[in-house]
UniProtKB/TrEMBL annotation:
Residues 322-465 form the Peptidase M1 membrane alanine aminopeptidase domain. It comes from the Bacteria. The lineage of its organism: Bacteria, Bacillati, Actinomycetota, Actinomycetes, Propionibacteriales. This is Aminopeptidase N. Coiled coil: none annotated. The keyword Cell membrane does not apply. It is an enzyme of class 3 (hydrolase). It comes from Nocardioides astragali. Keywords: Aminopeptidase, Hydrolase, Metal-binding, Metalloprotease, Protease, Signal, Zinc. GO terms for molecular function: aminopeptidase activity. Residues 1-30 form the signal peptide.
Length: 481
């Protein structure tokens, strides 16, 4: 998913532990018909224990049509979002995750009452008529506010100057700029229109559909072809240099902020233009790239991390040679974007795979083998290090982006490769991608698949690597002999 730090030193890795969480199904119960007394208020969360208010019960979103205006000088955002959703229960009310001040809400064209609950993170909506399970509805929310005023879960995620803005963060970003069902379990199509002063550019996910130029402003229209998790939707506005092309049939578009120095602009554009070739290299191991377009953007702001926004990752200025960072974020297009986590405790499936693909890139480009990198970690991190004290399969909300999730996640995969052999390992990876494509994946599902493909009992292996907060023993069973 996201690379939280650019220099991941050997000792800055950690392990995440996996546990099963029963998250509610987003499938409507066919034929449900409750009396007025039996109708419910959709829950304020989807059921993830790490962030109980993330997502919402009783709804399944199909699409977001976002039409926003952003004033760079005042950092004020205003607009409307149309949310097309299906009720998955008989509802008297439901919630969307949103932080900004709302002026009006309609459901199917009729005014709905609304209020704030749970510290302002939940926009509770009561339609004029109850919603029946299995029925589709269009919810329109109008709003205007200054996103930088707001925080949630200890995060203040609005990243902006008076010349540039970029909406990039994880695990939360959407509630600062559009109302959403903000959890990886509910992917949806995202269509984005952003109006900015003339002369400014807007970059977002997917394809540039068009621009509408008025006397003083321009509206940029972007649309992604494939559903995405809400935090992966983004826009950046400011002064950008844009380059585009086609590589082996895949359209690409990259952008670099003109707020950077001339030298940084040149170096960043060199790095961004590596994107299509890196995708082609990853496809040799992972199969076809999962989306219809690809790209990247380098911001002139200082986020302190890069993020795998779907189809177009965002990066800080790191120079022209930091290929491994681009490999990491593009590997996330398979692991984290196309296959999202079932719950946030499964984060190692994103970060471990993306980090492992960095190691794989190194070994296929005249560097150390992934097996040697694994041994270097193992041999140089003492058993007393905090690196080994994280439970990779269930790290807890405060540890989801601990360095160990990246490092120990990648170690787990290379150790599995050592244990089962190269050909079988890549069969596991390709099967995982094929079976989970477009959906969500959990640690338990990956373990089951690995056992099924190999015909081996890998329980003790995964227990040692993913569920034990201590250094695995140097044994063949653990892929370390």
């Amino acid at each position: 998913m996201t690379t939280r730090t650019f220099h991941r030193p050997l000792l800055a890795v950690a392990l995440c532990g996996a546990m099963t969480v029963a998250l509610p199904s987003l499938t409507a119960s066919a034929g449900s018909s409750r009396t007025a007394d039996e109708r419910v208020d959709g829950s304020s969360g989807i059921g993830d224990p790490y962030w109980p208010l993330d997502g919402n019960g009783g709804i399944d979103v199909a699409s977001y049509t976002i039409s926003n205006r952003y004033a760079l000088a005042t950092k004020r955002l205003s607009g409307r979002t149309s949310v097309r959703l299906t009720a998955t229960d008989d509802l008297t009310s439901f919630s969307l995750d949103f932080l900004l001040r709302v002026s009006k809400v309609t459901v199917d064209g009729a005014s709905a009452t609304f209020d704030r609950t749970d510290g302002g993170h939940e926009l509770r909506i009561a339609p004029a008529e109850p919603l029946a399970a299995g029925t589709e509805h269009t919810v329109v929310v109008r709003y205007a506010d200054h996103p930088a005023k707001y925080s949630y879960a200890g995060e203040r995620n609005w990243l902006a100057s008076k010349r540039e803005v970029v909406t990039m963060n994880e695990p939360h970003m959407a509630p600062w700029w559009f109302p959403s069902n903000d959890h990886p379990l509910d992917k949806a199509i995202v269509d984005v229109r952003i109006q900015v002063p003339n002369g400014r550019e807007v970059i977002s996910n997917g394809k540039l559909v068009g621009r509408k130029v008025r006397k003083a402003s321009t509206t940029w229209h972007w649309r992604a072809d494939e559903p995405m998790v809400p935090y992966l939707a983004f826009f950046a506005a400011g002064d950008f240099t844009i380059a585009r092309g086609r590589h082996q049939g895949l359209p690409w578009l990259v952008a670099v902020s003109q707020r950077l120095s001339k030298g940084d602009q040149r170096a960043s554009m060199r790095l961004m233009k590596k994107t299509p070739a890196i995708v082609a290299g990853l496809e040799k191991d992972l199969g076809d790239y999962p989306f219809s377009v690809v790209g990247g953007i380098t911001t002139g702001l200082n986020p302190g991390f890069a993020l795998e926004n779907q189809t177009r990752p965002t990066y800080p200025a790191v120079g022209g040679s930091y290929t491994s960072l681009v490999v990491h974020e593009l590997a996330h297009q398979w692991f984290g974007d196309d296959i999202a986590v079932q719950g946030w405790r499964d984060i190692w499936l994103n970060e471990g795979f993306a980090t492992f693909m960095e190691w794989r890139w190194t070994e296929t480009h005249r560097g150390r083998s992934a097996a040697r990198i694994l041994r270097s970690y193992y041999d140089n991190v003492p058993s007393t290090s905090d690196f080994w004290r994280v439970t990779v399969a269930d790290p807890g909300a405060t540890k989801v982006f601990d360095g160990a999730i990246y490092g120990r996640g990648a170690m787990t995969l290379q150790a599995l490769r050592n244990r089962v052999g190269d050909a079988t390992f890549w069969k596991i990876v390709r099967t995982w991608i094929r079976e989970q494509r477009g959906g969500n994946g959990s640690t338990e599902e990956f373990e089951e698949l690995a056992g099924r493909v190999t015909g081996q009992d890998l329980g003790s292996f995964f227990t040692a690597w993913l569920r034990t907060p201590s250094k695995p023993a140097m044994t063949a069973d653990n892929g370390l002999s």
